[in-house]
């Protein structure tokens, strides 16, 4: 029996659809925030730089969301407050997670809601992986290719069957027709083969052409074997100590010999650190690499050490992360204004002995980041950027509840002239 008016049914259906879409949107936001801020150091089911995060909502103080908010905003301040976080810091060799003051409590809740609801390992999900790259939902291309070949074979068989049936019919009716043209001389077959060859060849040519100029995995040999794992990882040297211009300039810059010698005037041997292994597993002599630095710097170690910086000669470092000449990229705009962590683009640099290009750095890769990355849009407090005061419409939409956040895309991050002019 039908007791409800149709308008009530439609309203209920619309409300249900709206509710479900709202839940999906929240989950997607959590996944996007996780990919942009957490995935360089954390995975759900394995230890990377930081611990695996699946089930984190049920551990120690993290059962209380307020503690999670404090932790993400300022981990170093929260560590001394509980035994759990003290032991966690000790187990990670003193490595402390960077602070994320730009994330709101709502952003943090979205991240941990996503972690709690993320599918278990082995569940096909598709979409972005924790590293921000697109994960194929399966062997779609292979299946599509197999189906296409099968259909083409079936089509050829049916054409041959049709030709044979027509010949039998003509023979029965005693209709004289010319001898059929062999398939290798048949214009229809030749045209069909040419079309298939053109489509398949075009697909692979286009796929290969898209990758031209991309250097993901590029790992050149440098004049000195400089281990970022030893410096940024084990010794916790801040990236900005060596690459200070990344905070205030377009270029990150290569550290001068003076910066290197600030420490290595006193550190002339590599003795207490972990073994430095190259990509082939061969041990690198750290002390010998420091000696190369002294040779470039014109420094004579030992008693009565002398150093004349004017005689120094900078090593010919090989640039790894290259962008096309027609692309404008500003480090300060991303690190200082956007709060983007170095690992977002450069991978887990603190774990690399020999640095390589970890990210694709393609236009699509950058655009996807602009679509997902949120900006610190609140300019009323000390952490905000008053430049965003010009976006009055977005501020009004946030106040009225039409928007809950603003991404780089919303403020023109997809406009061509932002990167090409």
UniProtKB/TrEMBL annotation:
Keyword Transmembrane helix set for record: yes
Pfam families: Cytochrom_C
Gene3D superfamilies: Cytochrome c-like domain (1.10.760.10), Cytochrome C3 (3.90.10.10)
UniProt-recorded Gene Ontology molecular function terms: electron transfer activity; heme binding; metal ion binding
UniProt-listed InterPro entries: Cyt_c-like_dom (IPR009056), Cyt_c-like_dom_sf (IPR036909), Multihaem_cyt_sf (IPR036280)
Keyword Glycoprotein included in the entry's annotation: no
Segments forming domain Cytochrome c: 25-119
Transmembrane segments: 142-159, 188-206
Alphabetically ordered keywords of this record: Heme, Iron, Membrane, Metal-binding, Transmembrane, Transmembrane helix
Alphabetical list of PANTHER family matching this protein: CYTOCHROME C7-LIKE DOMAIN-CONTAINING PROTEIN (PTHR39425:SF1), LIPOPROTEIN CYTOCHROME C (PTHR39425)
Protein name according to UniProt: C-type cytochrome
Originating organism: Flavisolibacter ginsenosidimutans
């Amino acid at each position: 029996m039908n007791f409800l008016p149709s308008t009530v049914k439609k309203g209920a259906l619309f409300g249900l659809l709206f509710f479900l879409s709202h839940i999906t949107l929240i989950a997607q936001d959590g996944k996007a925030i996780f990919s942009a801020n957490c995935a360089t150091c954390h995975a759900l089911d394995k230890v990377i730089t930081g611990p695996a995060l699946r089930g984190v909502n049920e551990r120690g103080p993290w059962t209380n969301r307020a503690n999670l908010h404090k932790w993400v905003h300022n981990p170093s301040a929260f560590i001394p407050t509980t035994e759990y976080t003290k032991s966690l810091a000790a187990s990670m060799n003193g490595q402390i997670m960077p602070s994320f003051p730009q994330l709101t409590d709502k952003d943090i809740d979205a991240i941990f809601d996503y972690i709690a609801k993320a599918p278990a390992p082995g569940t096909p999900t598709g979409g972005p992986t924790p590293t921000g790259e697109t994960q194929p939902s399966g062997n779609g291309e292979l299946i599509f290719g197999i189906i296409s070949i099968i259909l083409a074979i079936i089509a050829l068989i049916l054409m041959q069957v049709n030709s044979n049936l027509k010949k039998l019919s003509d023979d029965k009716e005693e209709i004289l027709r010319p001898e059929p043209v062999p398939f290798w001389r048949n214009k229809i077959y030749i045209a069909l083969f040419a079309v298939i060859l053109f489509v398949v060849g075009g697909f692979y040519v286009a796929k290969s052409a898209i990758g031209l100029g991309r250097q993901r995995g590029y790992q050149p040999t440098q004049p000195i074997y400089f281990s970022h794992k030893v410096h940024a990882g084990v010794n916790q040297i801040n990236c900005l100590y060596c690459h200070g211009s990344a905070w205030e300039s377009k270029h990150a810059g290569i550290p001068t010999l003076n910066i290197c010698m600030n420490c290595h005037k006193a550190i002339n041997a590599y003795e207490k650190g972990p073994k430095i292994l190259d990509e082939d597993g061969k041990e690198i002599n750290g002390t010998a690499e420091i000696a190369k630095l002294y040779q470039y710097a014109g420094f004579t170690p030992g008693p009565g050490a002398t150093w004349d910086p004017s005689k120094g000669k900078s090593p010919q470092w090989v640039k790894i992360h290259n962008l096309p000449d027609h692309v404008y990229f500003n480090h300060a705009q991303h690190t200082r204004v956007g709060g983007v962590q170095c690992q977002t683009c450069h991978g887990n640099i603190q774990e690399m002995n020999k640095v390589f290009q970890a990210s694709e750095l393609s236009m699509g890769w950058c655009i996807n980041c602009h679509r997902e990355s949120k900006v610190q849009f609140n300019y009323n407090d000390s952490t905000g950027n008053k430049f965003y005061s010009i976006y009055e419409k977005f501020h009004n939409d946030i106040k009225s509840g039409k928007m809950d956040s603003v991404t780089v895309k919303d403020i023109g991050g997809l406009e061509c002239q932002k990167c090409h002019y």
